[in-house]
Specification:
With 132 residues, this protein is an alpha/beta fold. Helices cover 33% and strands 14% of the residues. Strand 3, helix 2 and strand 4 form a beta-alpha-beta unit. Helix 1 crosses helix 2. The radius of gyration is 15 Å and the shape is globular.
Length: 132
């Protein structure tokens, strides 16, 4: 889990991690031994901004197979993204999550909308999510 103040680069770091895993590449001192399928679920940022950021990261990791990095953003969906803190919301994402080896959620506050953010009990459904 990445935490920091707004505007400090959490999404850049998350996208870099996702791209490194999808390419079998490296981010900072961590190296992915082989490419893995990554699902990146973003609850706020428009797809065009995410695509622009990925284009800036790709020169560092040029071997990206597009099938290994799938992105879900609200603006590319016909309706609101599901609430991942509910079983119904998690099931709605099954078509995507079952194909992924790694799921990146950016950010929990925008995608887990049920319960109280600062109460541990509210996170139980997310913590026990069995994707796919």
């Amino acid at each position: 889990m990445l935490t920091a103040y707004r505007g400090t680069g959490k999404t850049w770091a998350a996208l870099s991690i996702a791209t490194a895993v999808a390419t079998g590449g490296q981010f900072l001192t961590f190296e992915a031994p082989a490419p893995k399928r990554v699902l990146y679920i973003d609850g706020e940022m428009p797809a065009t901004q995410l695509q622009d950021r990925i284009r800036r990261i790709l020169p560092l990791m040029p071997d990206l197979d597009p099938n290994f990095l799938e992105i879900i953003t609200p603006d590319l969906q016909e309706r609101a993204l599901p609430d991942i803190s509910t079983l119904t919301g998690q099931i709605e994402l099954d078509d995507w999550t079952h194909r992924a080896d790694l799921i990146v959620v950016d950010n929990l506050s925008s995608l887990a909308r049920t319960g109280t953010e600062n109460e541990a009990e509210s996170w139980t459904a997310v913590a026990t999510w069995r994707c796919g």
